[in-house]
Amino acid sequence: MAKQDRAVRTRQELIRSAAEAFNQGGFAQSSLTEISTRAGVSNGALHFHFSNKRALGEAVESAASRTLHHIMGTCPVGRHAPLQLLVDTSHILAQRLSDDVVLRAGFRLGNDATWQAGVQLWMAWRNWVRFMLTLAAGEGDLSADVALDDAVSAVTAAVVGFEVLGRADGAWCSRQSVTRFWALMLPRLCSDPARAGIDASGTETCQVGTGTADAASVWDDEGGVDGEGAEDPELLVWPEGSACTVSHH
Questions:
Q1: Per-residue CA distances from 134 to 98, 137, 191, 224 (Å)
Q2: Is the per-residue pLDDT at 228 higher than 50?
Q3: Which tens digits make up the pLDDT trace of 113-122?
Q4: Burial of 42 from C-beta contacts in 10 A (0-12 / 13-18 / 19+)
Q5: Using an 8 Å Cβ cutoff, are 101 and 38 in contact?
Q6: Whole-number mean pLDDT of the chain?
Q7: Would you place residue 205 in the very low, low, confident or very high pLDDT band (cuts 50, 70, 90)?
Q8: Which residue blocks in 111-201 are alpha helix, DSSP H?
Q9: CA-CA distance, 199 to 179, in Å (whole number)?
Q10: Per-residue pLDDT tens for 4-40?
Q11: Which three-class secondary structure state does DSSP give residue 80?
Q12: 202, 175 in Cβ contact below 8 A?
């Protein structure tokens, strides 16, 4: 059992080290030797868990997917108004992007021209944003003159911007930055009856998901060599065209 636990820890450390390398230099410029050195293991130990760099990239992407799926499910639909849930979740995502190197690497790989992404994290986030805004429209919380596609694009692009700009300056992913965005955006999005009930700074209920210790446990990887046996949850659970069919009670 101790040997198995040690192998799991080694695999997790290799995933984290690969994420650090991909974030710093991109996929193509990162070498297996660099990744194994960062992890404090031999090249042989690395190859026991991952046959090549592609397998490491897939493991990073899969781990980031699990974290994003967890974030989008932290506050269940029904506990808050859909718009408040969207605000809260964007706060959690921005904080995790600042704190969690594996999550950052998963998003960055999706924008890396040298990597063929198997999981489109930004598409998953965009579809979830569309789902929340569709629910908000159905409840009469969106202003009547707001076009759904325009709202989805604006919210998605803002969080994309926080992630990209946050690589050089972590303040972009701060609660203050996200709050300022929503303070500017909500008066345009919200209908008059809904406006007073949405807090741009987020609610305490969903701020429990921002801790870094919790983030590490989300992507615990228990797969075998090259991830055999590991589950890879499907993130695109709100695909284009079907989001509007989901009812909210």
A1: 28, 5, 14, 40
A2: no
A3: 899 877 789 8
A4: exposed
A5: no
A6: 81
A7: low
A8: 121-138, 148-166, 175-189, 192-195
A9: 9
A10: 788 899 999 999 999 999 999 999 999 999 999 999 9
A11: coil
A12: yes
Under 8 Å between Cβ of 50 and 56: yes
| Distance in angstroms (rounded) separating the CA atoms of residues 241 and 63 | 27
Pick from 128-137, 166-175, 178-187, 189-198: least confident: 166-175
Structure tokens at 96: 């995790």
**Six token digits for residue 140:** 């009469």
107: amino acid identity, one letter: F
Q: What is the maximum alpha-carbon separation in the chain?
A: 62
Structure tokens at 178: 């996200």
Share of the chain above pLDDT 90, in %: 56
Q: Are 10 and 49 in contact (CB under 8 A)?
A: yes
Burial of 200 (0-12, 13-18, 19+ CB in 10 A): middle
